[in-house]
Design brief:
Helices cover about 80% and strands about 0% of the residues. It is an all-alpha fold. It has one domain. The relative contact order is 0.20.
Length: about 70
């Protein structure tokens, strides 16, 4: 798979897990499902960082989003 795609999917999953974690903690439950999603997101980001030769800088992340979105919209 493309490292940009792995990075984007990992970051999106990580962001989407935040409301689930907050909801579980506010209800007094253990955030089991959210923990699994965060773990998967972390693995995807690490694989993307290892697969890309020079890694990613913070400034490269928006370009990765735009390239992935542009690739799948057209």
């Amino acid at each position: 798979m493309d490292p940009d795609l792995l990075l984007v999917i990992g970051l999106i999953l990580g962001v989407l897990a935040i409301p689930s974690i907050l909801s579980a903690l506010s209800d007094g439950r253990a955030p089991r499902a959210a923990s699994i999603v965060v773990l998967i997101a972390g693995v995807l980001v690490v694989v993307a960082l290892q697969t890309k030769g020079g890694g990613y800088r913070i400034a490269d992340i928006p370009h990765a989003f735009y390239s992935v979105i542009g690739r799948y919209i057209h």
